[in-house]
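Anyone opening a protein record will find just a pair of labelled lines. With that in mind, the following record should read easily:
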Amino acid sequence: MTPTANVLIIGAGPAGLTASYLLTKQKHTVIVLEQEPELVGGISRTVRHNGFLFDIGGHRFFSKSRAVVELWNEILPDDFIERPRLSRIFYGGKFYSYPLRAFEALANLGLWTSASCMLSYAWARLTPIQNPKSFHEWVRNQFGEKLFSIFFRTYTEKVWGMSCDDISADWAAQRIKGLSLGSAIWNALTRNILSPKQDSNGQPVIKTLIESFRYPRRGPGMLWEAAAEKTRAQGGLIMMGEQTIAVEWLDTHKLWEVTTRTADGLQHKYHGKHVISSAPLRELATMLKPALQSTHAAQKLAYRDFLTVALIAKDDKDFPDNWIYIHDPAVKVGRVQNFRSWSPEMVPDPALTCLGLEYFCFEGDGLWTMPDTELIELAKREIEQIGLVRANQVIDGVVVRQPKAYPVYDEHYRSHVAAVRAEIEQRFETLHLVGRNGMHKYNNQDHAMMTAMLTVENILAGSRRYDVWNVNEDAEYHEAGYEGASDALGSERLVPNGIKD
């Protein structure tokens, strides 16, 4: 007999497990289908290697949504710790604090380059590009061409593998809206005078400048493992190692039939009244039956993949950063995570350090297909070149590949997503899209959770009461910190058709 549930959930990441926990709490029958054989959490999972723990990308826990914060506390009540945020930029052989420290930046760049940056900024403010369409144009308006070329172009093109002229301005609006050169300098000059919770107008500090965050003491996977355990305890099923290969609407029975395949080739079928999908939108569209007319649009959606090389080294002189952005074009690595600074429990031996070097790539390209041994050697050379650890100090290493880590915001992505979304909503009332890849939307972890929370409310209400696509549509929601901003923003409530502060 085919297993049947009220709700089938594709993917055991933050969105999928948020939905499964909340639905089983309300006594709904749920089956979660996850292609990973062992670890839940998706890109927010915690990987273990010889007693060391590390993230896939590094995940701070902060949110303007009181409901999200309360859910974190409900699922994992006793295991969050408070961590200071510290990050720097590595460029031209030097380190720059982030947020910007004006006099340090001046000293590092030199008088003439700094003057050039200020003149370029002034010119951009006097002659802004109207209705900027690309990342390049948006950042040029905010910072000037000179600072764009120094601090934005190299890193951004490492991340996306494409020209900044081909990346939509939507990316900048979501990630750095509200931050400008003027506000950054003002923050740098006044941070010891003003309250750290306020800017010069008495408003909460800009989202990218939040100075602390919460974090599960043994990594973000700790939260999602707890959510999975509680889902099971409430009667839900989580089927690991089952990749979804078909999603079919059986109109005669008014049910969904989802087909999965295991690593050994076995196929299983599941029936449900609703399907919640956090699978990549491009993949879901090609699996749907009856077929979508907008499949051609879905197939044009692109994704950026990345891999982490975790190096374990003999070094008890840990640098304090949580992570360092590598803007220098002389190395391939894009970012370095320092896992002890996320939580001391991530590194079990105080005489050792564990660093995660992140390389952005496309699945199947040279970096992606490079043997693990060669990737570890590359990482050892580059970590020494940056000056963080000597190659001969490294005693162990491991590689973790993460496909479809980032939905690409190219020139036409918005119209492609809109076409697929419109057809799904018109034809399939009980198919719900959630999460980063499920909506092809660069959601943070809390945004992914919120899309699931609103979807659960819609299922319980029996109608699309809330528009989940409004989550993270306003970029001001994006990175406002839980610490220091929650009081000012605590009046946020869920309302029909979205979220309001």
Remarks:
- The first strand starts at residue 4 and ends at 10.
